[in-house]
Write a structure and sequence with these properties.
mainly alpha, 132 residues, two-stranded antiparallel sheet
Length: 132
């Protein structure tokens, strides 16, 4: 494992999973008035744990030249689950827009936190490379 891989460790997987979760939550919000639409979400912590242990579905990227950096792998098709509704709906829709907006906002803050941590790691590596 290279120094770059160790420096970024799980943060790259977290960013990919957070981005995918954003798409899922946005779809829930967009379909709040669609009859029979079932709200979905993913278990972020279990997906991240699978990424850390190397389990789960991964799409490995091939290197065409030995001097290229390893791109790692990207997660595809995380285990998406249906959310249990808080109230019954007459049209079969299980989206509670307040819950979805809260989950979306929480995920956005966590995404920003991961991005801030990655930026800090990059700054630290940059200082180490420059010798300052």
């Amino acid at each position: 494992m290279s120094i770059i891989d160790r420096a970024f460790s799980i943060h790259d997987d977290a960013m990919i999973l957070r981005s995918h979760r954003t798409s899922i939550l946005a779809a829930n919000i967009a379909n709040a008035d669609t009859p029979d639409y079932k709200a979905r979400d993913m278990d972020f912590s279990s997906m991240l744990k699978q990424a850390a242990t190397g389990q789960g579905n991964k799409l490995n990227m091939a290197r065409t030249n030995e001097s290229h950096l390893s791109a790692g792998s990207a997660h595809i098709d995380p285990d998406i689950k249906y959310r249990n509704p808080l109230h019954a709906s007459l049209d079969g829709n299980t989206v509670d827009s307040h819950v979805e907006q809260a989950k979306f906002s929480e995920n956005a803050v966590q995404y920003q936190t991961s991005l801030t941590m990655l930026n800090g790691k990059i700054r630290g590596l940059n200082l180490a490379i420059k010798g300052q």
